[in-house]
Amino acid sequence: MTTATSPRALEHPARDQMRLETVLHALADPVRLRIVRDMARERTELSCSHFDLPVTKSTTTHHFRVLREGGVIRQTYRGTAKLNALREDDLEALFPGLLATILTAADAQADRTDVTRTPGGDA
């Protein structure tokens, strides 16, 4: 794992340290999958406060840590904000098509289970 150089630097696995089972574990939780789906949809860095999650702040912190340590996201501080970005290039290089396939499957599942949506359209 890369080493933090200051208290504000966060540890991330180097690309060659990322493991499939760790990535899959990070994506297996519904809250973490929701975070990743939101990040993929926005396609930009997002602060932790951007996400409206049905869990406590400490649990939210845990979910972001699992995603970061799994190599799914990169977290950086900008001023007082912690910004999150998907490591799409790293994931695609190591596990071609994995992220796109998981996101497509998650979208299909959400369409199937979201009772607030009308068939063929949004809520």
Structure description:
This protein has 123 residues and is mainly α. 47% of the residues lie in helices and 11% in strands. The chain has 5 helices and 3 strands. It has helices at 20-28, 30-42, 57-69, 88-94, 98-113; strands at residues 46-47, 73-78, 81-86. It has a 3-stranded antiparallel β-sheet. The radius of gyration is 15 Å and the shape is globular. 20% of the residues are buried. The model has no long low-confidence stretch (mean pLDDT 87).
SSE inventory with pairings:
Blueprint (H helix, E strand, L loop, with lengths): L19 H9 L1 H13 L3 E2 L9 H13 L3 E6 L2 E6 L1 H7 L3 H16 L10
Antiparallel strand pairs: 1-3, 2-3
Helix pairs in contact: 1-3
